[in-house]
Amino acid sequence: MTTSLSELATLIRSKNAGPFSLTFDVMFSAPERYRRVQASGVLNPTVVALLYGCPVEKVKFFECDNALAIKFSIPRPRPSGEPGDGDLHGGQQYAPLLALQIP
After folding, report:
1. At a CB cut-off of 8 Å and minimum separation 6, what does 89 contact?
2. Tens digit of each residue's pLDDT, the chain (103 residues)
3. Quick one: which of 14, 7, 30 has its CA closest to 71?
4. Is the distance from CB of 98 to CB of 6 less than 8 angstroms?
5. What pairing do the DSSP bridges indicate for beta strands 11-16 and 60-64?
6. Rounded-to-integer distance, Cα 95 and Cα 21, Å
7. Which residues partner with 25 through β-bridges?
8. What is the sign, positive or negative, of the torsion defined by CA atoms of 17, 60, 101, 29?
9. For residues 19 and 72, is the Cβ–Cβ distance under 8 A?
10. Phi and psi dihedrals of 74, rounded to 5?
11. Using an 8 Å Cβ cutoff, are 101 and 2 in contact?
């Protein structure tokens, strides 16, 4: 049986980390939910790279045990505010994470 990441996490968000990077936070209110996602190995740099179409070596990935959070940053596909940028603040980029299935 699997559960979507959106059902386990309390907060999943994205935002700019400057004009050339996006940062993501996946936060949990319960240690057992955080540990379940962490132990599954489903959310990792390789999956992030596949979801967002960037090289895996460009993914900066952190598990913050004391904050019950998984955080990562990736390069923006185009600089913030450049013509064709559909999300100036990077606040809508978290959507592909919502449906990740966690065993």
Report:
1. 15, 16, 80
2. 999 999 999 999 999 999 999 999 999 999 999 999 999 999 999 999 999 999 999 999 999 999 999 999 999 999 999 999 999 999 999 999 999 999 9
3. 14
4. yes
5. unpaired
6. 17
7. 13, 71
8. negative
9. no
10. -140, 160
11. yes
The rounded distance, in Å, linking the Cα atoms of 17 and 81 is 13
**CA separation for the pair 45, 50 (Å, rounded):** 9
From first CA to last CA, the distance across the chain in angstroms is: 6
Gap between the Cα atoms of 18 and 102, Å rounded: 31
Nearest C-alpha neighbor of 102 from the set 58, 66, 70: 70
Residue entry with tokens 């559909």? 86
Tokens encoding 19: 């004009």
